[in-house]
Amino acid sequence: MMLEVGLLDLRDKLIIHCLQAPLSSSGAAMLMQGFSFEWVAEKASFREASGLELLLRLFHAFPQERDLQLGMALVFRNVLGQAEENRKIILRAFDDPEVADRFLPSRQVRQGGSMELEREEEGEEEREGTEDVKDVARFLDWYHQEAQRQRRDNVVLRLERMCRAAESAKLRVVEKAAAKQSKYRKQIRDRDLKLAAVVQSALPQQDEKTRAKIRQSALAHELRMREIQESLQLKLASGERAWKELNAACSPAMRPCDATSEGT
Hints:
Elements: H1 2-20, H2 25-34, H3 44-48, H4 51-61, H5 66-78, H6 84-94, H7 97-103, H8 122-143, H9 149-249, H10 259-263
Helix pairs in contact: 1-4, 4-9, 5-8, 6-7
């Protein structure tokens, strides 16, 4: 489930990325054919990323591509414009009541973000679809008249400003996140350097303590060996005195023979 949610989020980000890219007319046509805007029609994330404004800008980018504009206008009318929040954004982007009403005529829209449409009979739906195509074609004929050039230019400039503002805001968010990440990495690096400095400064002290302990241990060992040697010497001297005393106390017959007596 989490993997599916992650893939859906990736898909939504991909469409925004494509809309921000400098697409050719063929690229725009492939985007419209390969992507179902019903997926994002009522997603707040799509609106917050200026997806509607970006798509409107793309619509105005290819006035000579009538089939492309016709398809995009139908997507706005029958899919994106069916959500009330989307409709408000689209009308505000045009900022021209007549153009907005011709592009997105007032009709029953879904309230509260509901994706459910009241289905009519199949024949009625087909008839309305045909009427939609004809109505959009009439809008395009009117909108591209020379008399509407100033209106078109105003809309294009407004959309460009809105999209640039959105991209700048996104860039600031990205830069802020990058700065925060950089600050965090710097804090980690400073902490590691400080710790390394503490360890480095502690090593000579530790080495000195170790050398002092070694010197102390060697001195103690030397003293101990001296004590043992002195103790042995005392014992030897005591044994020698005892032997002499014992020898003096014995009778001449019991004394050990020395070298002089053996010679005589």
